[in-house]
User: Fold this.
Amino acid sequence: MIKHNSYFDEKVQSLGFEGKTQPVSVGVMEAGEYRFGTEAAERMQVITGALVVLLPGSSDWQRFSAGQSFDVPANSAFDLKVEETSAYACFYG
Amino acid sequence: MIKHNSYFDEKVQSLGFEGKTQPVSVGVMEAGEYRFGTEAAERMQVITGALVVLLPGSSDWQRFSAGQSFDVPANSAFDLKVEETSAYACFYG
Assistant:
């Protein structure tokens, strides 16, 4: 089953599903600034556009572009700046 | 604006948006067999899982896995077999 989720006034939307080995979602973020909490650890992969990320424990914003990915620990939170509408995939656990 | 689309009894869902240079959608397909028509030409990129595709004018099914992509001409149709829930990005025009 595919689950459609909508956050931040529909400016972030995702489609979640059970992948072969782990839960996965693909999604789109419009330009904006967002803060997300994690339960499971997750790896985010940028598909189009770019995500500028402040990872937990870091004081430096890092830019990730199409094809790049970054890891976020479980039970944490991270901040994102999105300058153009961007697509991502997220792999949990 | 992000547009949520649902096809084939919700077994295929996508999120469409205007990318920097062209319209884009990211989506998920559950296991099944589907036939899609195109208006604009499109490039499909597999994000997770695999798509087995019969392209227009071809008599051979081809398998595309995560990271691979294929092109579909405008105003045509193509058949897909999906063996496990798979995610894709589609770039139009």
About this structure: The two ends of chain A are 19 Å apart (CA to CA). The interface with chain B takes residues 1-2, 4, 6, 10-11, 13-15, 17-20, 24, 26-28, 30, 45, 47-49, 84-85, 87, 89 of chain A (CB under 8 Å). Residues 3-92 of chain A form a domain with the Jelly Rolls fold (CATH 2.60.120.10).
